[in-house]
Amino acid sequence: MAAAAASSAARRFLFPRLLIASRRLHASASEGPAREASTTSFIHPAAVVHPDASIGQGVSIGPFCTVGASASIGDACQLHAGSHVMGDTDLGEGCVVLTGAILGADLPGRTIIGENNVIGNYAVVGVKCQDLKYKPGDECFLHIGNNNEIREYCSIHRSSKSCDHTVIGHNNLIMGSCHIAHDCKIGSNNIFANNTLFGGHVVVEDCTHTAGAVVVHQFCHIGSFSFLGGGSVVAQDVPRYMMVAGDRAELRGLNFEGLRRNGFSDLEVRSLRKAYRKVFMPAISCQSSFEDRLAELPARPTVWTIQIQFLVDLLYLMHEYTIQIASDRMPVNPD
């Protein structure tokens, strides 16, 4: 168990740093050394930059860009032709905003984007949510971390109310035409293929992978190291380490390829496989309930690792949440 925990800790320590290094190398090769060579900002005469905007050193603002009065542009950022930064928007150092992208909105609230992010062509990031519960005048927020690549035509919305936030972590690859709705909580090191759509309040943990044209229903929870097959319609929570596919999506086994790519050992994978079979593939003659099978896992040391603990904790939470939702929907007895 100690060895498994150590290998997991090493994996979580190294993976984000390797991903950051590879993306920085890609950025330096594609953008050239000009970003670091000068501390003088360049603003094209055809750009419209409000005098109250905060512009860092070494910033490049191309023609037909607009930068609002409350915007803050960090050092060494590049705004390509026809991109726009609006409202109270904070753009961190080293970000690249490609042609046609729109960041923020002239609405109450704030959009915060971290360092070394790439915002693709015609992406819309930090605009008003598409939720009828939104009340005009409410302050709504979007927080995005560092080293994310957000590709063309993506849409990422602010929260629907002032007491919540839409949050995206670090080192995510969000491919073309993806949608992340209001109040979503997205972790780090995720890969979302083209046309992945997340409804409101979806929670996505770390190191997940979606294939193309995936739809995730609002309030669903997607566990770490899971894989969502192409064209899936996900209407229920997805446990950690699992692979799901279909309309409506069903469990298809463990995400073996994802576990291998993320450095899980053979012992860890075998342990997870035994736990999966115990919980989700009981024998036909088995009379135990889901709760009973789940409770038996901690008593089976041959399959007990720190990953199993994560899985059990998450399954318990999902099961209790499902029971609560079902009870809330039960009709009230008129008698």
UniProtKB/TrEMBL annotation:
<dbReference type="Pfam" id="PF00132">
    <property type="entry name" value="Hexapep"/>
</dbReference>
<keyword id="KW-0441">Lipid A biosynthesis</keyword>
<dbReference type="InterPro" id="IPR010137">
    <property type="entry name" value="Lipid_A_LpxA"/>
</dbReference>
<keyword id="KW-0444">Lipid biosynthesis</keyword>
<keyword id="KW-0443">Lipid metabolism</keyword>
<keyword id="KW-0012">Acyltransferase</keyword>
<dbReference type="InterPro" id="IPR029098">
    <property type="entry name" value="Acetyltransf_C"/>
</dbReference>
<dbReference type="InterPro" id="IPR001451">
    <property type="entry name" value="Hexapep"/>
</dbReference>
<dbReference type="InterPro" id="IPR037157">
    <property type="entry name" value="Acetyltransf_C_sf"/>
</dbReference>
<dbReference type="Pfam" id="PF13720">
    <property type="entry name" value="Acetyltransf_11"/>
</dbReference>
<dbReference type="GO" id="GO:0016020">
    <property type="term" value="C:membrane"/>
</dbReference>
<feature type="domain" description="UDP N-acetylglucosamine O-acyltransferase C-terminal">
    <location>
        <begin position="237"/>
        <end position="299"/>
    </location>
</feature>
<dbReference type="InterPro" id="IPR011004">
    <property type="entry name" value="Trimer_LpxA-like_sf"/>
</dbReference>
<dbReference type="GO" id="GO:0009245">
    <property type="term" value="P:lipid A biosynthetic process"/>
</dbReference>
<keyword id="KW-0808">Transferase</keyword>
<protein>
    <recommendedName>
        <fullName>UDP N-acetylglucosamine O-acyltransferase C-terminal domain-containing protein</fullName>
    </recommendedName>
</protein>
<dbReference type="GO" id="GO:0008780">
    <property type="term" value="F:acyl-[acyl-carrier-protein]-UDP-N-acetylglucosamine O-acyltransferase activity"/>
</dbReference>
